[in-house]
Design goal:
The chain has 468 residues and is mostly helical. Helices cover 64% and strands 4% of the residues. The protein is built from 21 helices and 5 strands.
């Protein structure tokens, strides 16, 4: 079992989302109160870093599983709790049952779920939402119908998962950033160790870590553009398949609209990369390459200031600290949590979060600064860059282009349909009126008549020679 704590950037984002939702959501307000109440234990989980618990039987990890997944004193600081095993499904006496969907609309599924859930020892629910809702509420009722001596709380485990959203742009970005955070934590340890021979030297460590991050994020930006190109190709092929079905599944449609899918996705990738990097690269360079307040950071802003200003016009987020990129570049993390700076610069009395660093160390200060900048990068990507780069418009234009190519090639498709008719395309023949479906017979008769005509001509020639 692996327990991955939230990075400070993750935790800041969680608090921002809860703060925004708390205005009309009682559960969000309760979560915020819980986080404030257990600041010390939550900080402890974050400071411990990733933890591993080897096990061969579930009983051996019962306590850490409950602690990091279900205990409110610790769970809010946990990003993921992962279980890895190859033997669990083979444990003697244990049977796993995947209940059918309770919202499928089939009474059979509901009856099967009621029977199994009322007779099981543990129920694991994996869902997208933080609370059980809709048809899934039946799970609680069915579970209660089992052993009355065991409460629902003792055998119901709820896990959150967004895996079904993997294909969406937001989920793709989350996945790439999660990979980035994993690499970041590993490299940070090596860099900090390198600059801690006598005592921790924060300035060169900060620069060295940021330089590694800049290279990683630059590669990530290219990966985002490539994955968007692949996703657009999938949508384009879906459109082409639809148009192909309009011409009786003729292979000529795809061959003429998208002749080579590999070359097509490469062309999309080049176009999307240009659009994306035009806005993303200046933002990443100004936030990542140099520490807050450094001369290098100030020079970067001077050199690419115009490109930075453009993004302010596209920012769609809620947090005022990010509404002006140059301002955040100048103040960094202080603009998020320092009460006096927020009130002076933003006119907002309350900080977005309360700091959880009880006893700051040079290492913790560097981590806090860099993690906040990483959160800013993620926020601008999500709330400004995609809009500024015009990704949605580009995708719609590309699909419109394919549609127009199809519509404006009537003469071409007329020839394609004629060829399909001559090649006996079964879907085309099935769509023809009955009197036109016998063309195969007509062609056969025509061929025989042609052969008879040739034979008669030869016979006539032979008769003429004989008479002569």
């Amino acid at each position: 079992m692996e327990v991955e704590p939230r990075t400070e950037a993750d935790f800041l984002r969680l608090l921002a989302e809860l703060t925004q939702a708390a205005q009309g959501n009682e559960k969000a307000r309760e979560d915020l109160e819980t986080i404030k109440r257990y600041q010390s234990t939550l900080q402890q989980v974050q400071s411990e870093g990733r933890k591993t618990f080897p096990f061969t039987r579930l009983e051996e990890i019962k306590e850490p599983l409950r602690k990091y997944v279900a205990d409110e004193q610790f769970a809010h600081a946990v990003f993921e709790a992962r279980l890895y095993t190859s033997k669990l499904a083979q444990v003697e006496g244990i049977v796993f049952y995947d209940v059918p969907g309770l919202d499928s609309g089939l009474a059979k599924h509901v009856d099967e779920s009621r029977e199994m859930l009322s007779d099981c020892d543990a129920v694991i629910v994996v869902q997208r939402f933080p609370s059980i809702r809709g048809a899934e509420l039946e799970i609680i009722k069915f579970t209660e119908q089992g052993d009355r001596h065991i409460t629902v709380a003792d055998k119901l485990f709820v896990f959150l998962s967004n895996i079904d959203q993997k294909g969406s742009p937001a989920a793709m970005q989350d996945r790439l950033f999660n990979d980035l955070r994993t690499k970041t934590a590993q490299r940070r340890e090596l860099i900090f160790k390198k600059y801690s021979i006598v005592q921790f030297d924060s300035v060169p460590a900060n620069y060295a870590w940021r330089e590694e991050l800049y290279a990683d994020i630059s590669r990530m930006l290219l990966d985002i553009a490539k994955e968007l190109a692949i996703e657009l190709r999938a949508q384009a092929l879906e459109l082409v398949n639809y148009m192909t079905s309009s011409l009786y599944d003729s292979e000529e449609v795809k061959n003429r609209l998208i002749a080579n899918t590999d070359e097509y996705v490469e062309a999309l990738n080049r176009s999307l990369s240009v659009l994306f990097l035009r806005f993303a690269r200046p933002m990443v360079e100004s936030l990542v390459r140099a520490p807050v307040g450094s001369e290098m950071r100030q020079n970067i802003v001077k050199n690419i200031g115009v490109d930075i200003d453009i993004l302010d016009n596209y920012y769609e987020g809620e947090e005022s600290a990010f509404s002006c990129l140059k301002r955040y570049i100048k103040y960094g993390r202080d603009l998020l949590y320092d009460r006096s700076i927020r009130e002076k610069i933003l006119g907002i009395a309350e900080p977005i979060i309360e700091t959880f660093i009880v006893e700051p160390t040079p290492e913790a200060a560097v981590i806090a600064e860099v993690e906040a900048d990483l959160m800013a990068v993620e926020t601008y990507l999500r709330s400004a860059i995609f809009e500024a780069a015009g990704f949605q418009q580009y995708c719609l234009q590309e699909l419109d282009r394919l549609r127009d190519m199809f519509i404006n090639s009537e003469a071409t498709w007329s020839g394609v349909v004629q060829n399909e008719w001559l090649e006996n395309n079964p879907k085309l023949l099935a769509a023809l009126p009955a009197q036109l479906r016998s063309h195969e017979v007509d062609l056969e008769v025509s061929d025989r008549l042609r052969q008879l005509s040739i034979a008669l001509i030869k016979l006539g020639n032979l008769t003429s020679c004989t008479n002569t």
